[in-house]
Task: structure prediction
Amino acid sequence: MGDNSQAWKMLRNTRHAKYWCAYHFAWVPKYRRDILVGEVAKYTREVLKGIAEELGCEVLALEVMPDHVHIFLLCPPRLAPSYIANYLKGKSARKILQRFSHIKTRAKYGKLWNRSYFVATAGNVTEDVVKKYVEEQWKGVWY
Result:
């Protein structure tokens, strides 16, 4: 997040919270098969972007490789990382398998994704940002 003033401007808001909760997720198709190619890969990108927006998440980066997916999201703090991963995987699998029925024969037991996934947080709030928030929290408060 570069300099501190830029970091402060990048924080997101809900009615009751200021936040910057960024998560990097990665997962693979069942048996790590190379099935995410061509139109399937293109559609997978579209589907994942749509599902992320539906959750209220902002896609910072997304890459669909033949045998795995990487997605970097900024999400509201009310969403647990496990919920996000499972929702993205479950809903995307249904849509992708519905559209590309030929994948079902390569996806064992009709399952597109492996049950496992990787998640890491990306910390962007520096000590200076926290100090500035504490120092300026009274600005604009009317008592």
Observations:
- The beta strands are 12-13, 18-19, 22-27, 58-65, 68-74, 118-122.
- Residues 1-5 have pLDDT under 50 and may be disordered.
